[in-house]
Amino acid sequence: MKTLLTLFVLTLSLPATAAEPPMNTVCPVCQKDARLIFRSNTKDGKRVIFATAECKEKFDKTPGKYQVKPKS
Question: What is the pLDDT of residues 13-42, one digit of tens each?
């Protein structure tokens, strides 16, 4: 029963988090086209997407090193 309840609560919370669009279209690390599958959140809650998993890892380690350019 607890498992079922947990799955239900998680299902309800997914649409709210999935609806947040990313603030960029270009990877802030390698400057290539970013993909939605590789994403992270900034300190102020903005969603950032990356070109590769390696780019995401680099950004997560030192986010201040990279400038995220908002999509135009």
Answer: 655 555 589 999 999 999 999 999 999 998
